[in-house]
Amino acid sequence: MLLVLCVDLDDDLGRKTGMETPVVGRDAVEEAAVALATADPEDSDVNVMFQGVHLYDQLSRGESVEVAVVTGEPSSDVNANRKVGEEVDAVLARLATGENVSALVVTDGAQDESVLPVIRSRVPIDGVRRVVVRQAQDLESMYYTIKQVLNDPETRGTILVPLGILLLIYPLVIIGDFFEFPGTAVLGLTSALLGLYVLARAFGIERRFDTTVERARRGLYAGRATLITYVVAAALLVIGAISGIDALDTVDEPAIGAAEVVAALIYGSVHWFAAAGITSSLGQITDEYLADRFRWRYLNAPFYVLAIGAVLHAVSAFILGYEGLAYVATALTGGTLLGLTSTLAFAVAESRFEDEPESGSEDAELG
Question: Is the pTM of this model over 0.85?
Fold first, then answer.
């Protein structure tokens, strides 16, 4: 009698399906294979059990054949081999046949084949069948998969750029030593470049940078005023930040606190920041007018910036002791009136100048 013995050394069948082992009989083994495939379709032991069923169907036509599944344990090789031996004994006892029994062992790799001496001590082994999935041994498929991945520009940049930087570390260190440049500095610089690249890929900064460059290029050729005003505004912001730091140095250190620090920074930079805001808003208004999208309410922006700047300047000057309450009250009142007046004036202008063409066209239609 031939026993087709499927070996699952790490007991995937029992752990993933909860089935009791050993499993004996064609229908029981097929049911176990389906249960394991349902629980984990990627488990290679599924192919082992289906191969056992296939061998049973193939060999049972000419001789007495039985198929069974024995399992071990995932903890250690010794315990796993011992449990497999016990389950083989249970299978042989269940067969209870007067015929001489030999085994055809089916495994999924060399690890499971380490239990062969344990099985051979109990039953003669006529052969070993190792089940290997075709896709796992198909080098041609792997070659074309790698080729497809490398042909994708995005994937190629993600994989090859960090790999290239890592491969450059050793030659860069050699070049640094040749020019008496510290090797740690080379490693630090290379690591920083790799880290910046990974962060840029993670947050999609390269796409945002490309979008910004494309917008700047279009604005340059389209003659947009914002391209110039934004550059001027950025320069004014830098000057304002430097001016704020310089103003902080003029404050008396013994009496300085958190409020005084903030007030000094605002006092020294607010007029530069206000100039940057007015410049950028005027550029945006100009572009909207040239694109026939102008609205009167857009003119509120420079006045709002001027009002906010005046209020912040007055409050910061009061905190630093440069001005009194009268100056603060005047600035608050003036800023409020400026904002309200501009809002009302441009709202009236917008309603009047935009409604006149519509009323004129209606009179023409009535006429």
Answer: no
